[in-house]
Specification:
It is built from 5 helices and 6 strands, in the order E-E-E-E-E-H-H-H-H-H-E. By secondary structure, it is α+β, with helices and mostly antiparallel strands. It folds into 2 domains: about 80 residues, no CATH class; about 110 residues, no CATH class. Strands 1, 2, 3, 4, 5 and 6 form a 6-stranded mixed beta sheet that branches. Helix 3 crosses helix 4. The relative contact order is 0.14.
Length: about 220
């Protein structure tokens, strides 16, 4: 899980306690800590990895907590989310801006999520249909698909409302065909293939004591 920069931590990383963003990290560096206490009460414990990969645009480092060993594998696994989280990004901060709603009442959040779920379903199915019909280049300028199906469908819906000659495509029945993969840009692929870290400071692996002889009754 990735922490926000204002999350409170205690323990080996910050003996006196501080916000995790206070742990400065230059670009290209990676640091790890074991058994860090999380948030104000410090009742939750986890391993913490701070990483600021080269070539990935981010205003602050990644603050990753996990029950797994703090290592580069954790950073790499988190980095792969950029290839598979299009829909989550569309809902959170891309299309629907759920983060900016600032709602705190659970009932209101539930109603908003219901509306967003319906909108995501409609736009995604429309985008999938547009892709199957071969008309994706009309709303996605990439040579191969570079947008999520939700974005493709939303662009089609917007252009249908503006251009009277463009109609909505029939959604059903939807044939079961392989999805057209989303291909990142050349710049993104190049940055993904570059070394992420120039300096790594991780705690040594834990030594697991060998099990004693088995007692036989």
């Amino acid at each position: 899980m990735r922490l926000r920069g204002d999350a409170e931590i205690h323990g080996t990383a910050a003996p006196l306690g501080c916000q995790v963003r206070r742990l400065r990290l230059p670009r290209g560096h990676c640091r790890g800590f074991r058994d860090v206490q999380l948030w104000g009460d410090g009742q939750r414990r986890a391993n913490l990895v701070l990483a600021r990969p080269i070539g990935i645009r981010a205003s602050e480092p990644w603050y990753l907590v996990s029950n797994q060993s703090p290592g580069l594998d954790l950073v790499w696994a988190y980095g792969q989310r950029f290839c598979c989280e299009q829909l989550f990004r569309d809902q959170k901060s891309g299309i629907f801006q759920l983060e900016n709603s600032r709602l705190r009442d659970p009932a209101r959040i539930d109603r908003l999520l219901l509306v967003v779920a319906i909108a995501v379903l409609i736009s995604s199915v429309q985008g999938y249909t547009v892709s199957l019909s071969g008309q994706r280049p009309l709303v996605d300028a990439h040579w191969r698909r570079g947008l999520s199906f939700a974005r493709i469908g939303l662009h089609w819906l917007q252009q249908s409302a503006i251009a009277s000659g463009r109609a909505l495509l029939a959604w059903l029945p939807i044939p079961l065909r392989p999805l057209e993969p989303c291909i990142p840009s050349r710049g993104v692929r190049r940055r993904q293939n570059e070394p992420w870290s120039t300096r790594v400071d991780l705690p040594p692996p834990l030594l697991i004591a060998a099990a004693g002889p088995m007692a036989i009754a």
